[in-house]
Design brief:
Elements: H1 2-14, H2 25-47, H3 68-99, H4 102-116, H5 124-140, H6 144-157, H7 165-197, H8 202-228, E1 231-233, H9 238-250, E2 254-260, E3 271-276, E4 279-285, H10 286-291, H11 294-309, H12 312-335, H13 338-343, H14 348-351, H15 356-366, H16 368-394, H17 396-404, H18 415-429, H19 438-444, H20 450-468
Parallel strand pairs: 2-4
Antiparallel strand pairs: 1-2, 3-4
Keywords: Endoplasmic reticulum, Hydrolase, Membrane, Metal-binding, Metalloprotease, Protease, Transmembrane, Transmembrane helix, Zinc
Protein name: CAAX prenyl protease
Catalytic activity: Hydrolyzes the peptide bond -P2-(S-farnesyl or geranylgeranyl)C-P1'-P2'-P3'-COOH where P1' and P2' are amino acids with aliphatic side chains and P3' is any C-terminal residue
């Protein structure tokens, strides 16, 4: 532990200039946040002309019914327009709030609020919680029209919205209550670790955050998810038999198999699994069951179980923890930097002893351009994992045969073909874009494009047959 602290101290020594140099951090944040927003707008403008194409890629022409491709192009075009407007709108809003000292005002307002409750400025954690929720609510209100438009105009226009106004409001209120119920204790513990550990907070904070994530793995399906959706045991039938059989053959620790009423809000479809290493839960959207044949859903689940087999969630968790560690390792220099707060309009008496939460939020703003690059790298890793999971589905027959014999592998020889049909079907029915600019995809997409995945499946199948021969 001492070696870790000495290395972190060396990093802080190299960043000591942050604590004394009168840098205009606000101008820096404004410049780079606008740079990222304009770059994202540029990517949308690169992608937009592709929505004017009159026909899908040749390999997909047979999969589109008359009028289906035109609908997907219209949906993509409307989404692109909305994304361009909402991105610029949010940036203008954030830039305006930053320019007029919204963060400094919010800290002052939080202090006044807790003073009415009998607390003074010595109660930093209490003021920090009030500060965060003032920021959260006051920054959420101006973006509500975007959420309303996206749900009741954009999604409604293209036949996907199933959310009623009452459900929309109820969901929003539930989200706010959950944010306070879980956010306040989390933030209190987060800040308490800083107070207790001082500048040696990094390993303790990492341990706390990992523990919190594991707790949420348990709480989400049992406490949070039921507040929004109904999870019902998957009905008896062919699909259930297929999935349970697949889990047994792969020794997947399946505890529960659920169907979720995703159609309550949208006709988009999905499937996922979650849980602790020894007890996993599979959740299938009712829309996926309605839109796909049982053998195709089985292939989708074979892909998902490929993520489990190769420990992709664990690997992504490890990568994200490295990322968080890197951020926390840099933070102490900014935690003790009065010039940082001064540049964001905080008064001298606050800047002299920077509140932890204020310094941390401002530090995150400074990392904006770095985080944009990190997201591209994370997307690249995620896409690699998606190809590996696709290959797993194609090779599933051979894997099962090797461990369970010929009888266990029966009927799995076309798993890759079934997965390909399922992907095409889901793309068509969800009006997903099939023409994608490579740079736009690299920045935004955690999954390969449909044509990339289909080519990959063909290649994996060819390699499988070549290996057999």
């Amino acid at each position: 532990m001492d070696i870790l602290h000495s290395q972190l101290a060396a990093v802080q020594q190299k960043l000591s200039w942050v604590q004394t140099e009168p840098i205009n951090w606000k101008l820096y944040v404004q410049a780079f946040s606008w740079t990222v927003t304009l770059f994202e707008s540029y990517l949308l403008l690169r992608q937009y002309p592709l929505y004017s194409k009159k026909a899908p890629p040749a390999a997909l022409e047979k999969d589109f019914e008359p009028g289906a491709f035109e609908k997907s192009q219209a949906y993509g075009k409307d989404k692109a327009k909305f994304a361009l407007f909402s991105g610029l709108y949010k940036q203008i809003l954030d830039s305006t709030l930053l320019h007029f000292g919204f963060y400094a005002w919010s800290w002052q307002a939080a202090g006044q609020l807790i003073a009415k409750l009998g607390y003074n400025s010595k109660y930093e954690i209490t003021q920090s919680i009030a500060f965060v929720f003032i920021l959260y609510f006051l920054s959420t209100i101006p973006t509500l029209p975007l959420s309303v438009y996206g749900t009741f105009v954009l999604e409604e226009k293209h036949g996907f919205n199933k959310t009623t106004p009452k459900l929309f409001v109820t969901d929003m209120i539930k989200s706010w209550l959950l944010a306070f119920t879980f956010g306040a204790p989390f933030l209190a513990a987060f800040l308490k670790i800083f107070q207790w550990a001082g500048d040696r907070f990094v390993p303790w904070l990492m341990a706390f955050m990992i523990s919190f994530q594991l707790i949420m793995v348990i709480l989400y399906p049992t406490v949070i998810q039921p507040l929004f959706n109904k999870l019902s045991p998957l009905a008896e039938g062919d699909l259930k038999q297929r999935i349970e059989g697949l889990a047994v053959k792969l020794r997947f620790p399946l505890k529960h198999l659920y169907e979720i009423d995703g159609s309550k809000r949208s006709s988009h479809s999905n499937a996922y699994f979650f849980g602790l290493p020894w007890a996993k839960h599979i959740v299938i959207f009712d829309t996926l069951i309605q839109q796909s044949k049982p053998e195709e859903v089985e292939a989708v689940l074979a892909h998902e179980l490929g993520h489990w087999f190769f420990m992709h969630p664990t690997k992504m968790l490890f990568i994200s923890q490295l990322h968080i560690f890197s951020i926390l390792a840099l933070f102490p220099a900014f935690l003790h930097a009065p010039p940082l707060l001064s540049s964001f309009d905080f008064p001298p008496h606050v800047a002299r002893a920077p509140p932890t939460i204020v310094a941390f939020l401002l530090f995150q703003m400074i990392l904006t351009p770095i985080e944009a690059v990190v997201s591209i790298i994370m997307n690249a890793v995620s896409r690699k994992f998606e190809f590996e999971a696709d290959r797993f589905a194609v090779d599933l027959e051979d894997r099962v045969r090797a461990t369970g014999g010929e009888k266990a592998a029966a009927g799995m020889n076309d798993m890759g073909e079934r997965l390909g049909r399922a992907l095409v079907s889901l793309h068509v029915k969800n009006l997903s874009t099939v023409w994608v600019d490579w740079l736009y995809s690299a920045y935004h997409h955690s999954h390969p494009t449909l044509t990339e995945r289909l080519k990959g499946l063909e290649q994996f199948q060819a390699e499988k047959m070549k290996k057999r021969n």
